[in-house]
Amino acid sequence: MIEAVPYKIHTVLTDNGIHFTTPGAGGSAVPLIKKAMANGELFRAHAFELACAKAHIDHRTTKPKHP
What we know:
alpha+beta, flat
């Protein structure tokens, strides 16, 4: 989708579902992923959050039980 959109995606807002975040993580891990990549550390990440981190997209999550 990032390549298909003709403009820069700055922020993505999703729910806390398993399609977008690691269950029980308590929100987005994109800042932690960026830090680990910058330091050359090994890490495990959810595929969606890794894609956001690589594309410099701010991934935000909604509050639990708030559509």
